[in-house]
Write a structure and sequence with these properties.
InterPro entries: DUF8128 (IPR058441), P-loop_NTPase (IPR027417), T4SS_component (IPR051162), T4SS_TraD_DNA-bd (IPR019476)
Strand content: 5-15%
Keywords: Membrane, Transmembrane, Transmembrane helix
Region (Disordered): 278-298, 868-894
CATH topology of the largest domain: Rossmann fold
Number of helices: 32
Pfam families: DUF8128, TrwB_AAD_bind
Number of strands: 22
CATH superfamily of the largest domain: P-loop containing nucleotide triphosphate hydrolases
Domain DUF8128: 79-225
Length: 908
């Protein structure tokens, strides 16, 4: 106390008298009043002085056992093309200074870390959970393409240190902390390269960790630096540590410092009451000592540079910091070598006249080292001040200029979803992944977005069928009309397992592999003759898509005319195509019923000329026999397509909202059969959808059709559906694996008409094609590197395609949705739409063995009441065979006035 009184004569008592306290204490001795005031001021100054000392030196870290402050360890990844360098990290640290608390009792700290093992080099941040969102936001602000993920604490994976060599150290400053380190602004090459190179290429089991602990400090830490600069600039001796937060410089310095604090308290007390809790920590200009000369000395260039570098450091915000290094290896030599290598890499920030890093050994307790590292424990004796530039120089995320191998890069970019992302009243397809904000989204059901179709592409096993399963389940539960075509059978089986009780009777199962109960599907069945050209075009396109490798114009012409001819006659099936070309009696039977003169002339003239040239007719007919005949020779296909009356009616299925399940297992019915049958079904489906033209648009019920591996059924019909089916409310959802499976025409049709595009992981050629659809957000490398179930989505929203964004598919439907109704559904569908195989085969066998001829056609016309005399071309004796006697008698009474000419039917 006597030492403090030594400085009392230097106090400006006039300033104290300006408080006019005497007016409030009239009659009280002035010296007594001053003594009381000095006592109060001394007490306050002592408390304030000790608080500031304590603020610097005491352990202000939260208790690691306190659940409120427990850390979450995040891994940070950026794309390899990242161009953000250390300056971005400097801005990030400046923003993170915002976690500074107004009261100095507890201050959270962060830990920025670099870990390396045999898997590569990774970057992490450990942050109290309640600050996670804030810290992530600051990272994203500077690194928009960063991926910040909670993958657990890598340090927790080390379960034991037995039989391992462990070494560790702390890295501290060699001088007072207002002396700066060399920063990234002074490097031509990214300093991170040296750090990562020193810890790369580790052997299995070896680990090297660097931990940078930081916590913000108020802007009072610069005071000691400003004092030092002023003392040097004015030529005054600098004794002891000039750092205000350092050790005492001696009793005299302590007394002088105390007196200065006492006078500062006088000024700070009103500010504390009026200016808020943090006013005491606001920075102030460098103190002006009344004992210094008014004119500074002329310093050398080196001295000026040193002082300027100090002032630059003092101009930035500061963090109390500590660096900890931990190395694990089976070899002590390697562990020590790696430790020294990493410490040496930090030497690049050192300078002769500035600060430098030095190694500080730790205690001989490896287990405690590990526990302290895991706890991200800040030393109780505090750390040293590094500013934002220095922190960014030591820790920043790697850029494209860092060529260290095995850095853990972000494999693919994540894109921001649109603001208008549908999250209600939609069929859900996934969750967004941008910045780990998982928002469930889908395609709206209350407008035409789904009617503009959906296209999914990706390698096998990436998640396409999972999206289909989720969407199909939702459509079924929402009582929508649903169709599913599956070339493998697995998807159909899973859908059958999820049919709810309320929709068992809605299921129409078309399964050619169910050989015991084949359904009936006559591709030539028409409701109106005006539809025949459209139907014929679709059927020919289906055959052409399957046999394109050996297709020719003559084959197409002949097949088209054969189909058009059969479409004129009710009850005909595809079985009649080859018979029409080879059986002249059957041909006359059919042509008698054909009213189209163009078709009649074709058969009477063109085809007759072909028949006159054996070589020509053989070349014309053989391809159709080889292709169509081979297809229909399969009993499985024949039993379905050879029945004259369809039990499965696509128009009724769509209009009533039923569930159509088309199972075409390649392994059971063959690849060729599955593909051609699927193409024919798609053609039929499109044909029936277009008949909705007679239904008012607002009454057309949407029908959602899912085609898995649709390249197996992709004919020209698919291209037509994509461009025209929207208005008829036939909504396609298509998947396949790679674009080479499609023709160029089909690829153009897909990208030209599909509204929603979803891409999973792709190979190089497909990535190049899809990148043009997903630019500018994603590129080829992103598409190649996508992980399983991750996808890029270009979503149709209110009739407009959104910018591409990243997402992850929903989990496969839970077992709780499995109803166990499969057998019930199969049995119900068999009863409604199937027939006993023996009965079907008997009918087809009788048709095959029956001898058709002109007389039969005439007799049938007579019974129907629409008899007309056969034309001359049909009665040409040279082209006819005798009519069986059993068909002659009914014709005797046909028309007495009819006298056949040039015919071999003598009794006609």
């Amino acid at each position: 106390m006597f030492l403090y009184l030594f400085y009392l004569p230097t106090v400006d008592w006039n300033a104290l008298l300006n408080l006019r306290i005497s007016q409030a204490f009239a009659g009280v001795s002035l010296w007594y009043l001053l003594a009381v005031i000095l006592t109060i001021i001394a007490f306050l100054a002592s408390a304030y002085f000790l608080a500031k000392k304590s603020f610097s030196n005491q352990d202000r870290s939260p208790d690691p056992q306190d659940v409120r402050f427990q850390n979450v360890v995040l891994i940070i990844k950026v794309p390899k093309e990242n161009e953000k360098e250390a300056l971005a990290a400097e801005h990030m640290f400046a923003s993170l200074h915002g976690i500074l608390r107004a009261t100095p009792d507890i201050q959270e700290h962060l830990s920025f870390e670099i870990s390396s093992d045999e898997g590569g080099v990774a970057f992490h941040v450990a942050v109290p959970r309640h600050l996670q969102s804030f810290v992530e936001g600051q990272i994203y602000a500077q690194y928009p393409q960063a991926e910040v993920v909670d993958e657990g604490d890598y340090a927790e994976k080390v379960t034991t240190l037995e039989n391992l060599s462990v070494t560790a150290c702390q890295v501290v400053l060699s001088k007072q902390d207002f002396f700066p380190l060399k920063t990234f602004r002074e490097f031509e090459v990214d300093p991170l390269s040296s750090i990562t190179s020193s810890i790369s290429n580790l052997r299995p089991g070896e680990k090297v960790w660097l931990q940078l602990l930081i916590r913000p400090v108020p802007d009072v830490w610069q005071e000691s630096g400003h004092k030092y600069v002023e003392l040097v600039r004015y030529g005054k001796p600098v004794t002891g540590r000039a750092n205000f937060f350092g050790l005492f410089a001696g009793l005299q310095g302590l007394a002088k410092e105390f007196l200065e604090e006492l006078l500062n308290v006088v000024a700070e007390i009103p500010k504390s009451f009026l200016g808020g809790a943090d006013s005491a920590y606001r920075s102030s200009p460098p103190p002006k000592s009344s004992t210094l000369e008014d004119r500074p000395l002329k310093l050398s260039t080196g001295q000026e540079d040193m002082l300027e570098s100090i002032e630059i450091k003092l101009s930035k915000m500061g963090f109390e910091s500590m660096i900890r290094i931990f190395v694990i290896s089976a070899s002590s030599d390697f562990a020590n070598g790696r430790l020294q290598s990493l410490v040496s890499s930090l030497g690049q920030f050192s300078g002769s006249v500035i600060n430098s890093f030095v190694k500080k050994p730790m205690s001989d307790d490896p287990q405690q080292w590990l526990e302290d590292y895991r706890a991200r424990l800040f030393p109780s004796y505090g750390g040293y001040i590094l500013n934002t530039d220095e922190l960014a120089s030591i820790f920043h995320l790697p850029s494209i200029s860092v060529e260290t191998p095995a850095i853990t890069w972000s494999r693919y970019r994540r894109g921001e979803p649109p603001l208008s992302l549908p999250i209600e009243n939609c069929t859900y397809i996934g969750k967004t992944t941008f910045r780990n904000n998982l928002v469930k989204f889908g395609i709206r059901n209350d407008n035409d977005d789904r009617a503009k179709h959906m296209y999914l592409i990706g390698k096998t096993g990436t998640g396409k069928s999972t999206i289909f399963k989720n969407m199909i389940l939702q459509d079924i539960q929402n009582n929508h009309g649903v169709g599913v075509m599956d070339p493998h059978g697995e998807l159909i089986d899973q859908v059958l397992d999820m049919i709810p009780d309320s929709r068992v009777d809605d299921v129409v199962l078309f399964d050619p592999s169910d050989f015991s109960f084949p359904p009936a599907l006559n591709m030539l069945e028409l409701k109106s003759p005006e539809q025949k050209n459209l139907m014929a075009s679709g059927l020919v396109a289906a055959f052409k898509a399957r046999f394109d490798y050996s297709w020719g114009p003559r084959l197409e012409y002949l097949l088209n005319n054969a189909i058009l001819t059969l479409l004129e006659v009710p009850g005909t099936t595809l079985l009649g195509i080859t018979r029409l070309l080879t059986d002249m009696n059957y041909q006359k039977y059919i042509l008698y019923q054909v009213k189209d003169q163009v078709m009649r002339e074709f058969w009477d003239k063109e085809f007759k000329e072909m028949r006159g040239n054996q070589r020509l007719i053989t070349e014309a007919i053989a391809p159709i026999q080889n292709k169509v005949g081979r297809f229909l020779s399969s009993s499985t296909i024949r039993n379905i397509l050879g029945q004259p009356h369809s039990t499965i009616k696509f128009d009724e299925i769509m209009d009533t909202g039923k569930i159509l399940l088309i199972n075409l297992p390649v392994g059971k019915i063959g690849d060729d059969n599955a593909s051609l049958l699927g193409s024919l079904i798609v053609s039929r489906l499109q044909f029936m959808a277009m008949q909705r033209i007679n239904i008012p648009e607002e009454q057309r019920r949407p029908f959602y059709f899912y085609a898995d591996e649709f390249q197996n059924f992709a004919s020209g019909t698919f291209a037509s559906i994509l461009s025209e089916a929207r208005k008829f409310k036939l909504c396609l959802h298509m998947t396949h694996q790679y674009t080479a499976q499609l023709s160029e025409e089909m690829v153009d049709a897909v990208f030209g008409n599909v509204g929603t595009i979803v891409s999973f992981s792709l190979g190089g050629p497909d990535a190049k094609i899809m990148a043009s659809e997903l630019t500018p957000v994603f590129d080829e490398n992103d598409l190649i590197s996508l992980e399983k179930y991750n996808m890029y989505v270009k979503l149709m929203i209110d009739g407009m395609a959104s910018l591409p964004f990243s997402a992850v598919s929903l989990e496969p439907p839970d077992k709780k949705f499995y109803t166990g109704n499969r057998e019930k559904v199969v049995d119900a569908s068999r009863r409604k739409y199937g027939s006993d195989t023996a009965v079907v085969e008997d009918r087809i066998s009788r048709w095959t063995s029956r001898e058709f001829n002109l007389g039969m056609a005439v007799a049938e016309a007579k019974r129907r009441g629409d008899y007309v005399p056969p034309s001359d071309d049909l009665l040409d004796e040279r082209e006819s065979e005798p009519v069986p006697r059993k068909w002659q008698r009914p014709l005797n009474n046909v028309n007495k006035s009819f006298t056949p000419m040039r015919t071999g039917y003598k009794k006609f």
